[in-house]
Each structure stands twice: as C-alpha cells, then as structure tokens.
C-alpha cells in the first residue's frame, strides 16, 4: 500500500442517511465509502486524531441511534480469491464488503461446501466473524481459517488465526475492548470438496431432511441442505425488506448443568439444547412466549407472531421504542424464570 494518504470515496459531505434492516431513522454526520485498501492511511490519520469512527457493513445486526457522530465508514471492499486448493478442500479469501448470502451461494456453485447451513443470513462477510454468526448447527468460526485486519493501534495489516479471534457463542475478539482497534478487511474460509463433505443435520428443523433421505434411500447434498435452510428461514423469519428486523434480538442463555436441572424441575417443558461442555443453551424464544409476548404489539414495535425472538419495527418506530420493548421483555423473563436475557445485535444507541 502506498504511503500517500488517499481519501476514501466521499458519499456526501453533508449528513448521510444510514440504511439498516430495522429501518430506524439514523443519520451519519459524515459518511465515507471504503472500496480500496489505499484509503486505510486516511482512516489511520482520523484514528490518530481521535475522530469518532464507526464501520458499517449491511447494518443488519446494528441498533442505531438517530445521529452517528464523527466519521461513518461504509465497508465496500470486494473480491473473492482462491488461496490454495486440494482434492479435499479449498482456502478462499473473501473481502469484507461482499454480501454474505451471495457468497454462500457462490461457494455452493463453485463446489466448496460447509456454509450451506448459514444461508440467507443478511449482512456482509466482514461482519460474520464479529458476531460469530451461527444457524442450524453451524457457527462461522468453525469454517474460518483466518481474518485479515487493519490494526489502528499500530497502523498495520495483521492476519489473525481462528484461535486469535476467540470465537464463542455469538461472540469474538472483535466485540471485546481489545478488538475495537481492528478493522476487518477480509475473511479466509477453509471449505470442503464433495468427497470430504458431511452434512450437519442435528438441528431439529433439518432432521426431517435426514429422515426423508433415509426413508427414500437418497443422498443428502449440499444443495438440498441449502434449500432446506432457506425454506425454513423464509417460513419462520420475517423478510427485513418487508418487516424491518435484525433477526434474533436476544441470545439463547447458557446455563450450568446444575442451574438448568433446578430450573427444569420448576418448568418441565423448558426447551434447551445440551452443549459439548456440559452446559445447556436455553431457548430464549420459548421463555419469551411463555411470558405472553409472542405476537404482541406495543405502539410502533412488536414481537413477531411466528418467532418470539424477533422484534419488529411496525412502522415509524424510534430506537427508544425498540429498547423499551426489549427491556420489558427482559424484565418479564427475569421475573418468571430468573434468567437474564442479553441483546444479540450490537447496540450503538
């Protein structure tokens, strides 16, 4: 990269509306589009001058305030590059600004498998490691070889291994204080070829696919898993283009085995999923539904009628309306079950 500072492409010197899947009104004081790594030197200068800076991809997992101060950088780096390939697997580097779902589709079409359970998740590739996105039995951290970042603390590009990223349930280094100086530039995925691929069908919504294949003596393909995941998501989750939302609004709480056993004695129908480390992951949506929130509306916001984990903007909602609803739900779940809920999306409000 040249040492000469290059200004990122300016979208607007005036306040810029920031589109987001919750459709919350948000204006950035100054927005810039980063579509070339040569713009990093300019961003570094802003960082060193202690200018407020926010990086936005698809804004599909953000709760935004009415005003974003300082500089808002819209991630637009593009490109997909094969790094190495064998008969068993392939290592592919994908730029942070690529659409996540489009990348999953492209990987499937290229014969690179392992991401099909993560189909139809909105957002960008660069955002996927931050939240360690997961669905239907797979977390993206399981497929990541490394993440390339710009480290503002030293003004250099670094490559972080999957272990360096500290992936955990809906968590990573990038959500911790020590990760706030890191800007994700690309993500490298280790994916499988057909001969070494095995479907992940443990999640309840995918077990019918496994049973159907067994009954009809069919081989489950990556495409069939992809198609099933897409069908399930479309059936259970609202399209944010039609009903603004950020998907699951709360994390599924993790409890120790002892805590879970005590709670299950009180609530025999408690829905939970055993974890490899002995803990239990509670179904937050089930608890929210038991508290009577599923399908309820409170002014301009509400809880989706098919999925209690999803809070929706019913039209003209402000961020304060959404957070008030989330607080009321959390208080009810805590009062009934003694379990604290944690908001899953990143909140800048």
Walkthrough of the structure:
This protein is of the alpha+beta class and 349 residues long. It has 8 helices and 20 strands. It has helices spanning 40-48, 100-109, 128-131, 207-215, 222-236, 257-266, 284-290, 319-337, and strands spanning 9-12, 16-17, 27-34, 53-56, 62-63, 67-75, 80-85, 89-95, 134-135, 138-139, 144-151, 156-161, 182-192, 254-255, 272-274, 280-282, 297-298, 301-303, 311-313, 346-347. A hairpin with a 2-residue loop joins β17 (297-298) and β18 (301-303). The relative contact order is 0.12. The model has no long low-confidence stretch (mean pLDDT 93).
* Percent of residues in beta strands: 25-35%
What does the largest sheet look like? Answer: 5 strands, mixed
Overall mean pLDDT stands at: 93
According to DSSP, the number of beta strands is 20
* Uncertain regions spanning at least 5 consecutive residues: none
For the termini, the CA-CA separation is: 35 Å
Number of structural units classed as domains: 4
The helix content is 10-25%
Q: What is the ordering of alpha helices and beta strands?
A: EEEHEEEEEHHEEEEEHHEHEEHEEEHE
């Amino acid at each position: 990269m040249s040492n000469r500072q290059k200004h990122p492409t300016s979208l607007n010197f005036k306040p810029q509306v920031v589109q987001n899947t919750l459709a919350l009104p948000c204006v950035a004081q100054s927005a810039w589009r980063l579509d070339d790594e040569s713009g990093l030197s300019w961003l570094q200068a802003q960082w060193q001058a202690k200018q407020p800076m926010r990086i936005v991809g698809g804004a599909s997992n953000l709760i935004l305030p009415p005003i974003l101060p300082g500089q808002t950088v819209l991630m637009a780096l593009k490109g997909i590059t094969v790094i190495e390939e064998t008969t068993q697997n392939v290592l592919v580097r994908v730029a942070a600004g690529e659409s996540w779902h489009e990348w999953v589709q492209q990987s499937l079409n290229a014969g690179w498998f392992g991401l099909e359970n993560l189909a139809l998740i909105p957002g960008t590739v660069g955002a996927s490691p931050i939240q360690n996105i997961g669905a239907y039995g797979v977390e993206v951290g399981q497929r990541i070889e490394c993440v390339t970042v710009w480290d503002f603390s030293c003004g250099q590009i670094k490559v972080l291994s999957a272990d360096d990223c500290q992936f955990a349930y809906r968590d990573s280094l990038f959500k911790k204080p020590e990760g706030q100086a890191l800007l994700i530039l690309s993500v490298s995925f280790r994916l499988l070829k057909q001969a070494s691929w095995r479907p992940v069908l443990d999640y309840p919504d995918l077990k019918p696919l496994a049973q159907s294949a067994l009954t009809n003596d069919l081989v489950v393909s990556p495409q069939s898993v992809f198609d099933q995941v897409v069908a399930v998501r479309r059936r259970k989750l609202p399209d944010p283009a039609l009903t603004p939302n950020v998907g699951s609004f709360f994390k599924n709480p993790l409890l120790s085995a002892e805590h879970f056993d005590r709670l299950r004695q009180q609530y025999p129908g408690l829905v939970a999923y055993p974890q490899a480390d002995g803990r239990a992951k509670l179904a937050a949506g089930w608890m929210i539904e038991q508290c009577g929130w599923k399908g309820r509306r409170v002014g301009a916001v509400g809880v989706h009628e098919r999925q209690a984990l999803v809070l929706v903007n019913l039209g003209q909602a402000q961020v304060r309306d959404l957070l008030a609803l989330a607080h009321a739900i959390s208080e009810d779940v805590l009062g009934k079950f003694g379990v604290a809920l944690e908001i899953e999306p990143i909140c800048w409000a």
